[in-house]
Structures are given as structure tokens and as C-alpha cells.
Amino acid sequence: MADFYAAFFIGLLGAGHCLGMCGGVASAMTFSINKDATKSQQWLTLLLYNLGRSSSYILAGMAIAGGAAVLSQLFDVKQALIMLRLLAASMMLLLALYISRLWLGLQALEKAGQHLWRRIQPIARFFLPLKHPVYAFPLGMAWGWLPCGLVYSSLSWAAVSGSALNGGLIMAGFALGTLPAMTTLGLLSHTVSRLIQSNWFRYGGSALLALYALHTGYIAIKQLI
């Protein structure tokens, strides 16, 4: 469960990044059904969008974790899994620097993911403008594959979780952490944005994230020795 909470924390801390990357489409989407859309329709649209986005995260986590678990059973890859956990700890440390804005190196991973996104983006565009709130779900699923350093960091933890179920659970934690920012768009977006952009939130949260990464890395190194 520790990795679940770590993934939730990543999603929560990365709220500012989420608003920057997905907030625009989420805000525009709630008003794209028609000009007479009711509040309930807007909320339903936003809910289905986030459920779709979360589903993509969970499916990706299950696929990566399930594949790693099968390989670990077929081959003696205990040391390889320990090395992967070291990699996950390193990704978490880099993410702490990324969220604190002290170093934005994870943007290189996001650029690498653009190759896949170019193939998926036309699918996302197909659903806009939304003709009905139900189309927000597949739109969210497509948008869940947008290149994102936060997602990649969480997936690195999912990869060493031991099973597809655990991998999906970790990514569910990440998705849950992103919900406070993504579901308050249009109502509390200014208040939330001001909070998550504050220095104490970014630096304090990043410091806790870095400590957890160092602790996990230390345990992995002890297993190697």
C-alpha cells in the first residue's frame, strides 16, 4: 500500500502540471456540448472524462506490472527487479526536482512520448466538440496517453509492484490524486491553482517525495549487497 500512497501523492503534488496539460481540454469540454448545457451535464461530462483518463492509467499500470510479473516467474530476475526498483526510486527523485521546478529534466521523457501521442491524438480530436456527455469517456481514455512525466514516474513504480492487480492499484492511486484539481475546474480553479502553485506546497511536497525516494533506493541497495 505504500506505493499506492506514493502514487496518490504524485498525482496530488502534480496538480499544477495536470491543470496545465489537461485543464484546457477539460474546461473547454464541459461547455462544448451546447451553449445551453446545464450544470449537471457539465459535471457529468467532467466526471466521465476523468473516469476515462483514469481507466487508461490503470490499464497501462496493469499491462506493465503484469508483464514484469510474468517475466519474473519465467526467469530468475530478482536482481533485475531490484534494479527496476532503484530506477523507480531515481524517477521519483527526478520527479521531486521536476515538481519543485529546480530541474525540468523529465520533459525529455515527455518529448520521447510524443511519437505515440501523434498516433492517438487524432482519436481524441474525433470526439471534439462533444455531441453528448457520454463521449467524454473515450475522449478521456485517449487523453490519458498524453506524454506526461508524472505518469511515467508512477508507471515505474507499477512495473515493480509484483502483479497486474497491484500495478493497476498504484495507477488508480495516481489517478485519484489528480482528481481534486481536475474536478474543481470552473468552480474552484483559481483557488486551487493559487494553492498548488505556492512555494510551500511545491517545495514541501517535493521534499517529502525525495525522502521517500531515497528511503526506497536505500532498501533496494541493501537487497543488492
What are the defining features of this structure?
225 residues; mainly alpha; globular
Explain the overall architecture:
The protein has 225 residues and is an all-alpha fold. It has one domain (2-224). It is built from eleven helices and no strands. It has helices at residues 2-13, 15-30, 39-74, 78-100, 107-112, 114-126, 136-143, 149-159, 164-182, 189-196, 199-224. It is globular and about 65 Å long. The mean pLDDT is 79.
Short characterization:
By secondary structure, the protein is mainly alpha-helical.
Stretches where pLDDT falls below 50 for ≥5 residues?
A: none
User: What share of residues are in beta strands?
Assistant: under 5%
Q: What does the largest sheet look like? A: none
Number of helices: 11
Level of helix content?
Answer: over 70%
Query: What is the subunit arrangement here?
Result: single chain
Number of domain modules: 1
Rounded to the nearest angstrom, the distance between the terminal CA atoms is 25 Å
Order of helices and strands: HHHHHHHHHHH
The SS-based structural class is mainly alpha
How many β-strand stretches?
0
| Average of the residue pLDDT scores | 79
Rg from alpha-carbon coordinates: 18 Å
Overall form: globular
